[in-house]
Amino acid sequence: MKTITIYDIAREADVSVSTVSRVLNGTAPVKVSTRERIMQVIEKHQFQPNALARSLTKKETGTIAMILPDITNPFFPEVFWGAENKAREKGYTFFLCNTAGDYSRESEYLSILREKRVEGIIFLGGRINLTNCPAELQKEVVEVDNHIPIVLVNGNLPKSGLHRIYTDEAEGAAIATQHLIDLGHRDIAFIGGLEFMSTTSQKVKAVRKKLTEYQLSLRKEWLLYGEFSVRAGRDLMSKLLEGEQRPSAVLCVNDFTAIGAIKAALEHGLRIPQDISIVGFDDSPLSTAVIPELTTVTQNTNDLGSLAVETIHQIVNGNKTKRNMVLQPELVIRQSTGPFRKR
Known about the structure:
Elements: H1 6-13, H2 17-25, H3 32-45, H4 51-58, E1 63-68, H5 75-90, E2 93-98, H6 103-115, E3 120-124, H7 135-145, E4 150-153, E5 163-167, H8 169-182, E6 188-191, H9 198-213, E7 223-224, H10 230-241, E8 249-252, H11 255-267, E9 277-279, E10 296-298, H12 301-316, E11 324-327, E12 330-332
Parallel strand pairs: 1-2, 1-3, 3-4, 4-5, 5-11, 6-7, 6-8, 8-9
Antiparallel strand pairs: 10-12
Helix pairs in contact: 1-2, 1-3, 5-12, 6-7, 8-9, 10-11
């Protein structure tokens, strides 16, 4: 069978090769009737342009990469899902890089992706979530951005000038705290997250600030740091419940930690929310897969991914884009929180 080329499409549609190219790449407007005629021929022959040839002639690969720290954490696949849907719409394919939170692996991927000439990089987690990122790690990202546009999602490298798209996590923690206060809770704890990660420190700071507005405080023994996992949530909650005094409500750094907290509470014979209220963060699919279903804060994960791809697309096409885009979180109230009850 003969291989159909762009020249065959142009000949059969009775147009120039450049016109077919404009339709395929969306680089310039084409008369509607002409576009329809070309598309009919393309569909007839099920024509697909050679991606490798296009990358060599135009110095474009049509590929966007995403660097993330933990593919098993539902938050990151949710962001990827939003990014991939937008990428397909724009004609890009994806290169997914899972670093397991290893900064040296991040460095390896940055080098590989630059070599592969991807169109752009979406960066989540790892070094961009450090409260104080080492200068050499920050410099590495900035240098790659000089050649390939990088968009940071829910992270920051201060004074780098890199494009950022993020949910206001501090505001999310504040509205979750307000929810518990409105339910009558005054003894509120916070568990999970590494103290040196900005995603943790921002939330803790916001919780403290909100409690202070009501002349309340976050007691030292009720602030327990740890990993972001279910196991960490279970262990930290157990430690909390075995203390001299028990809080009436617990805020968790993410949904994984909250699910672990629910397990520990049930193991200690507590009813949720009658005896203790628990709030998560992320609104991952797991939040409705547990009993009771989890009250949590949505981070608009699909929008984060979609906007990151759109930003790269605009940069690649030479259009101006905002350096910072912030999304507002929302509280999703389910079964794991309820009014304070005296013991």
